[in-house]
Specification:
The complex is a heterodimer. Helices cover about 25% and strands about 35% of the residues of chain A. In chain A, strands 4, 5, 6, 7, 8, 9, 10, 11, 12, 13 and 14 form an 11-stranded mixed sheet that branches. A 3-stranded antiparallel sheet of chain A has the order 1-2-3. Chain A contains 7 helices and 14 strands. By secondary structure, chain A is α+β, with helices and mostly antiparallel strands. By secondary structure, chain B is an alpha/beta fold. The radius of gyration of chain B is 37 Å and the shape is elongated. In chain B, β8, α7 and β9 form a beta-alpha-beta unit. Among the domains of chain B are: about 120 residues, Diaminopimelate Epimerase, Chain A, domain 1 (Roll); about 150 residues, Roll (Diaminopimelate Epimerase, Chain A, domain 1). Classes of the chains: A alpha+beta, B alpha/beta. β14 of chain A pairs antiparallel with β11 of chain B, so a sheet runs across the interface.
Chain lengths: ~350, ~400
């Protein structure tokens, strides 16, 4: 005896039966009718769905050469615990994270050598000029922010990033509808056709960055993107001269989660764009698998300005390659309060005057 | 045969004798001893003077004498048998060089030298004798208007029912007039009915508006009132509103009343149509009064507008300051890896669209009822604002 194949209703999930009156498959729970070929096709689509496999299997980075290790210093900040690397020529006076002075601890050890680096394209003068321009017209900024002394504290730092490459193979299923409306004198009709849409394909990704420094907020670093990877070069210690480099605290394995998340989101977005001609489309299931995954360790240039205001620390960053500004600037609450009061009075008067005019007409 | 001739001749003579005073009756107000006025001019001036008499109960008389003897002029009034005997009249006597104005009876109250002079001046301003007499009559009317506002008129000196097309018999006219007077005084708004035999080439709207404006209809500072114009020759009707009546009678209301009036007019029953008009106007004004549409007093802006405008001002200020704050923070989120897609690496292996099933939903339609509209207004030639509606029947 052959196995009895049971079909699930795509509309309500109940078990479908063959209805001899209409000579089609009909769900006894929601009264929807189906052609048997459609059901068979849908069933095969369901069976072919795949699960996610987002594991990386690569080992990034390499070891330092001896002479390189010799020329690099490791700094530790006592107040915030931040660790930075600088070449011996750089006089690091204050911690880029919290502004307090740093203490020389010793040689570099236990750290991987970066695979590549994007050198700084904008120097300090440029950075300060751009920052000043960016702050134009921001009336709620505290006055001291644009002082020379404050702007001078901007620091150029190489932030460690893990870069992930991968090929993906994805299978995504959508539920889509087409709507048709017409009306007669007494009734409005609306007819909905339901479809199951399947997309299977491949998509490649290169250099998806995840920041490897715990001290640098992930949201801030992601906001600085994109970095133009075409300008990256193989790492040389010479690039570190005059700048600081952050040591990575998060290793590749922990970072890959974030990269996988972003890649999966992108794949879903791209596949969604390929579904055309429907009135509504919603994703039903998605399975993304990563293959050929590789990881790299790179340093990206960032200008950082940390400001303490009213007990809060504000970090403002600029992409050292593209000049993009991100971050939170401090808000002068007193100024905000004064502005609110002034504008309230102004608009209150205007509205009252307008009400009078309308009343008199 | 000779016997029959004599009585016939006597009868004829008798009739002539009777006719003479009748002819004399016609030239009651204007006396032209020199014969400079033609018969038709005389007739028109007589008609105007008669109208004045009817309106104000004062005879406005005129006498044109030959010669230029001032003494004769002064003495004329004694000999004129139209004046005296307790009659209220104004008399202007004119000869080649002099004029003299007199007031008798009630009119003595305003018969000061200034008014006398204005009457003489008015006559002198005329280019011809006819113009002069006409000016005199107009000036006399002005003086009378000023000093004798009529009781049975709306505003200053214009009756509420003007039946120029002569559609109503006298008794119906009287009853309709009293009905209109009653409504007008009760509702503090003139309700006027006007019939004309021809519109002189004007549109019904313009004719009605101008008639209303030029005859000084309307009560209160806004000259509120409503006028029904009927021209049977062109089969036109028009209702013109002014002042507070514009808001009381919306376009929808005017259409409604107009339809009913037109129906009656089409049936040929003018009296019923006008009565219907009067009754409906009364009802509508009464309703509006209950609903407070005629609330003329305009107190100042109520106090609660102060906190409301402050609140609204605060909301706007908050929004603006919020925007300024947001400008300070710039943290675009980046939840995808869209910038890192390898170019041209997208390869779709399977692309399938599978039809599953369909659903049809049917709902009953509701019929829509339109909202109650407002009143449209336009300006008449004199610049006053009027609402109105009209049509053919």
């Amino acid at each position: 005896m052959a196995d009895i194949q049971e079909f699930q209703c795509p509309c309500c999930g109940g078990a479908i039966e063959f209805n001899s009156t209409v000579q089609r498959m009909k769900c006894p729970y929601c009264d929807t009718e189906f052609e048997i070929e459609d059901l068979l096709a849908y069933d095969s689509v369901l069976r072919s769905a795949q699960d996610d496999d987002l594991n990386w299997h690569a080992q990034p980075g390499s070891s330092w050469q001896e002479e390189e290790e010799a020329s690099l210093q490791d700094y530790l900040c006592q107040s915030c615990g931040g660790e930075i690397i600088a070449d011996e020529a750089t006089a690091a006076t204050s911690c880029p994270y919290c502004g307090s002075p740093v203490i020389l601890t010793g040689r570099l050890s236990g750290v991987l050598r970066p695979d590549c680096v994007i050198p700084f394209k904008l120097d300090k003068q440029e950075a300060k000029a751009r920052l000043r321009q960016h702050c134009q017209g921001k009336r709620l900024l505290p006055k001291f922010f644009l002082d020379e002394a404050h702007l001078e504290q901007i620091k150029g730092i190489y932030v460690p990033f893990w870069l992930f490459d991968a090929d993906t193979h994805a299978s995504i299923r959508y539920r889509a509808t087409k709507l048709r409306r017409w009306s007669t004198r007494d009734y409005i009709y609306s007819e909905t056709h339901y479809y199951s849409v399947l997309r299977k394909g491949r998509l490649g990704f290169d250099n998806v960055p995840v920041d490897g420094s715990e001290k640098m907020p992930d949201a801030l670093m992601e906001a600085l993107e994109p970095f133009d990877f075409s300008q990256a070069v193989d790492f040389q210690t010479a690039y570190l001269a005059g700048y600081l480099a952050d040591k990575y605290d998060i290793d590749a394995d922990s970072s890959q989660q974030r990269a996988a998340q972003r890649i999966k989101q992108s794949v879903e977005d791209v596949f969604y764009e390929t579904v055309h001609g429907f009135d509504t489309v919603s994703m039903e299931s998605s399975g993304v698998q990563l293959t050929n995954s590789r990881a790299k360790y790179a340093l990206f240039p960032v200008w950082i300005l940390t400001t303490s205001f009213n007990g809060k620390r504000y970090t403002f960053a600029m992409n050292g390659q593209t000049g993009k500004f991100v971050g939170e600037l401090p808000v002068d609450r007193k100024a905000a309060g004064l502005w609110t009061a002034g504008l309230t009075a102004l608009f209150g008067l205007l509205i009252y005057g307008a009400a009078w005019l309308v009343w008199l007409l | 045969m000779k016997m029959k001739w004599t009585p016939a001749l006597l009868v004829l003579l008798f009739c002539l004798v009777l006719a003479l005073p009748a002819a004399a009756e016609e030239t009651n107000y204007i006396l032209d001893s020199t014969g400079v006025l033609t018969d038709s001019e005389l007739r028109q001036l007589e008609a105007s003077a008669q109208e004045l008499h009817a309106q104000y109960n004062v005879e406005v008389l005129f006498a044109l004498l030959p010669g230029n003897d001032s003494q004769e002029l002064m003495a004329y009034s004694q000999s004129d048998d139209r004046v005296g005997a307790g009659a209220d009249c104004i008399l202007l006597v004119v000869n080649d060089s002099y004029w003299n104005a007199h007031f008798w009876g009630e009119s003595v109250a305003f018969g000061d030298s200034e008014n006398e002079r204005s009457l003489g001046q008015a006559f002198n301003d005329g280019q011809t004798y006819y113009d002069g007499v006409r000016n005199y009559l107009l000036q006399a009317e002005r003086i009378l208007q000023e000093h004798l506002p009529g009781e049975d008129t709306g505003g200053v000196g214009s009756p509420l029912l003007v039946d120029a097309a002569d559609l109503l018999p006298a008794d119906q006219e009287a009853s309709l007039l009293s009905q209109l007077q009653d409504i007008s005084s009760r509702q503090a708004m003139d309700v006027v009915v006007l019939t004309v035999s021809d519109l002189s080439g004007m549109s019904p709207r313009d004719y009605a508006d101008n008639y209303y404006d030029s005859h000084g209809y309307g009560q209160g500072a806004n000259l509120s009132g409503v006028l029904l114009l009927h021209c049977p020759e062109s089969r036109d009707w028009w209702i013109s509103t002014s002042g507070a009546a514009i808001t009381v009678f919306t376009d929808v209301d005017l259409d409604y009343i107009g339809r009913m009036v037109a129906e009656k007019l089409a049936q040929g029953d003018a009296a019923a149509a006008y009565e219907l008009f009067a009754v409906q106007c009364d009802r509508l004004i009464e309703d509006a009064k209950q609903g407070g549409a005629l609330n003329s007093a305009k107190p100042g802006l109520p106090w609660f507008w102060v906190p409301i405008s402050l609140l609204l001002g605060f909301v706007i200020a908050w929004l603006i300051v919020g925007h300024m704050r947001r400008k300070l923070t710039n943290l675009p989120s980046c939840n995808d890896a869209g910038s890192y897609i390898r170019p041209d690496s997208l390869k779709m292996e399977t692309s399938r669209e599978l039809f599953l099933y369909k659903h049809v939903v049917r709902t009953r339609q509701e019929t829509d009822r339109g909202p109650r509209g407002g009143s449209s207004t336009h300006r008449s030639k004199s610049g006053a604002s009027h609402g109105g509606r009209g049509g053919k029947y």
